[in-house]
Amino acid sequence: MTEVSKSVEEIPKERITKAVKQLNLFVKRKLEEEEKNGNDLLGADIEDIDQNVHLIAVNATSFSGSVKQFKLKLIDIQHSLYKPWKQNSITALKDFKCLLILKDTDVDKISQDDLFDSLNEDNIIIDELISVNTLKTTYKAFESRRAFIQQFSLILADDSVITTLPKLLGGKAFNKLETTPISIKTYSSSQKKFSKETLINSIKKVYLHKLPVKLPRGTTLNVHLGQLNWFNESDLVQNVESVTKYLLDNYKIRLIFIKTNKSPVLPLYYNNDVIDDLVTGEKKVDEHETSKEKVTIDGIEVDLSNFEKSLLEIANPKKLSIIFSKNIKEAKRSRVSEEEESKQSDNTSNEPESKKFKN
After folding, report:
1. Residue of 271, 351, 261, 343 lying closest to 314 (CA atoms)
2. Does 7 or 200 have the greater pLDDT score?
3. Confidence class of residue 228 from pLDDT cuts 50, 70 and 90?
4. What is the pTM of this model?
5. Which SUPFAM superfamilies does this one have (predicted)?
6. Which of 29, 222, 265, 266 is most buried, taking the most CB atoms under 10 A from its CB?
7. Using one digit for the tens of pLDDT, what is the confidence trace for 160-204?
8. Which helix (H) or strand (E) holds 180?
9. Considering only CA atoms, which of 24, 3, 10 is closest in space to residue 234?
């Protein structure tokens, strides 16, 4: 994890609220167009595709380094992703189901009835409870194991067995957020043994207050926030605030966008300091680049590279003079130099011939 300054500028709530409003308007227009064109809106096909909300964050360096991460990062949020997911799955093509995987030695220490009685108050249901050995035996065949895993939208697993699951479940299961197991604690830290209370509290914490995020090896992170129709505007804004704050506090984030699957990306944040470093680095790498475009900023004509032109499109218009201050200074210096050369040339041309050739 990259060390960052704690003085990072937070994203104004008004900006996030405006972006969420625009996404809602975009989806509403799209659905109205589909209905007007006579497309079938029965079922959830179009809504499922169009209303998935993603937060895209671009880091200055790799989020996870060169080592592949099997454990999901859990970010605190105020409004559960899983509660509305389960509620809306009633009309969706796939039911929301939850799987719990425990150690072979612990699976008999708690029953489905125990889980139901302890979790029902929070409307949490564990649909299937199995041991690691069950995966090895009952679902030994690859096809049966894959079909079994694909049933679930949330998989919870004892933290002590999480590292053995990639081999048992197969790499493809870890390509999807839904089928990537989330580690939970099952052992009491004080007694060092299986604890029903610890297990129940861990399940509640994930289900009610955590958002799972798969950290990539690269610099671009895709955070799935659920669907627009799962949340009211205020709740979704609060979740976005929580996620962006975590990212800004823990990584050297340079850009953050929000979008649905088919909407344009809406910029929420850029880090001017990081971008300055990147621009400088790109200039060093691309010194041979001759493709420049002239753009007028604050009345000054400046040259922008491809990267800088992309930045111009998402930057706050009121801060262009700050973001491109180096470019403006260079343009001003260049203009002053040209003017001085022009004056010297004019003075020389106006000198009498006798002075020009005087020995």
Report:
1. 271
2. 200
3. very high
4. 0.72
5. Ribosomal protein L1
6. 266
7. 999 889 888 888 888 888 999 999 999 988 878 999 999 999 999
8. none
9. 24
